[in-house]
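Q: Here's a chain of 113 amino acids. Please give me its 3D structure as tokens.
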Amino acid sequence: ETKPPAHPHSARTYLELNEPNAAATQRIELTQPHFIIGRSPDVAQFVAQGVGTSRAHVELSREGGEYVLKDLGSRNGTILKGESMVPYKEYPLKEGDAFVIAGWSFTLRSGLY
């Protein structure tokens, strides 16, 4: 039985955000088993204010040690690894996979902070 490292800088899964016209990337820590990205602060754990972002655009869910990504019926859709996602279908998300919402690019990463 392996236990997670007790060190505070243990490996954590996060999203790396590349905003359009931003000089640097941003890290978004995935702090909850269900993590919504959208433009509404009422429902989203991360608010993306880009034009074309829906109130609740996508949901990342952690199931066991795996992540799945689901487009929540967004008006303008989500691109995962270059392909349009089917709304409400769950797609497995692996380290390094990127998805795009209204020009904002998110990449799943796990590593040290």
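Q: Can you summarize the key feature?
A: The two ends are 25 Å apart (CA to CA).
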